[in-house]
TrEMBL record:
Pfam family, one: Usp
Protein name per the record: Universal stress protein
Domain of life per record: Bacteria
Family: Belongs to the universal stress protein A family.
UspA domain boundaries: 1-158, 167-284
SUPFAM superfamilies in UniProt: Adenine nucleotide alpha hydrolases-like (SSF52402)
PANTHER family membership: STRESS RESPONSE PROTEIN NHAX, UNIVERSAL STRESS PROTEIN UP12
Transmembrane portions of the chain: none
């Protein structure tokens, strides 16, 4: 089975960014590109159930009308999704992708991605979906569930595309982040892009040794690499370094027990992703 770049799109403003980053990743990785649209046909709890209001008409008639209404809504949603996929494929080709496939599924996004994850080399998703509150600081609940459920690299993107010119890896010497260094070193996605490796912690012999290994691995692969060990609170320290060095893309490990890996459990993770102005690549 060919692993591919899969991009989840919906009606949100982030879908354009998803299209453009997915096309960029597909070209760089030399991997097929597939756009995914999921119709969530679960009942909307905010809607009022009129089927019990006998005074407004016969119960049988109301149930029939409601059933027809839901059927029409499903058909409209399916057609909207088909048009979105068509537009996404056309946009990707305009951005240089040789071709792109489209897939439409019914269900929930998380369940669908869990079913398809063996086919995914990289998942590209927007910071928020169409059902999320439009406050720019809000993080979509779907994204949090996807991150917790999927065991594939996930690229969370903003609504506007910018080709990364500097990449930063939040590093702690763990197995996950060491794999991240090795992935960055050999991945065509970041070929020719300077990499900054940052450890949040004390200036100890072990941290210095870990950082030296990471820098050597990247430089041996032909990357321009810089490193830093900074003391402080993890989220604030990483964000400050990113702004100071004008980093375009942040790479982080996704789960674990160290200070950095713990970011993806609880409010600290949400804050890190919510405040991100650029793309974030999450590794598993």
């Amino acid at each position: 089975m060919t692993e591919q770049v899969m991009a989840a799109i919906d009606g949100s403003k982030f879908s354009e960014g998803v299209c453009d980053y997915a096309a960029w990743a597909s070209l760089a990785l030399g991997a097929p590109l597939t756009f995914l649209h999921v119709n969530d046909n679960h009942p909307q709890t905010a809607e009022t159930d009129l089927s019990g209001n006998i005074g407004l008409g016969s119960r049988e008639h109301l149930l029939e009308e409601l059933s027809q209404l839901e059927e029409r809504r499903a058909k409209v949603a399916q057609e909207q999704g088909r048009l979105m996929l068509k537009a996404a494929r056309e946009r990707a080709v305009e951005k240089g992708a040789s071709e792109a496939a489209g897939r439409q599924r019914n269900g929930t996004l998380v369940e669908t991605l869990e079913e398809l994850q063996e086919e995914i080399r990289l998942l590209v998703v927007g910071k928020r979906g169409e059902t999320a509150h439009q406050d720019s600081g809000h993080l979509g609940s779907n994204l949090e569930r996807v991150v917790r459920s999927l065991h594939r690299p996930i690229l969370m993107v903003p609504h506007a595309f910018k080709a990364p010119e500097k990449v930063m890896l939040a590093f702690d010497g763990s197995k996950t982040t060491r794999k991240g260094v090795e992935m960055l070193a050999k991945s065509p996605l970041f070929e020719g892009v300077p990499v900054h490796v940052v450890i949040v912690g004390a200036e100890t012999g072990d941290n210095r040794s870990q950082l030296d290994w990471a820098l050597k691995t990247l430089r041996d692969a032909g990357h321009e690499a810089e490193g830093a060990i900074r003391a402080g609170e993890v989220e604030a320290t990483l964000r400050a370094y990113q702004e100071e060095q004008q980093i375009d893309l942040l790479v982080m490990g996704a789960y674990g027990h160290s200070r950095i890996r713990h970011l993806l459990v609880g409010s600290t993770t949400t804050a890190m992703l919510r405040k991100a102005k650029g793309p974030v690549l999450l590794l598993r």
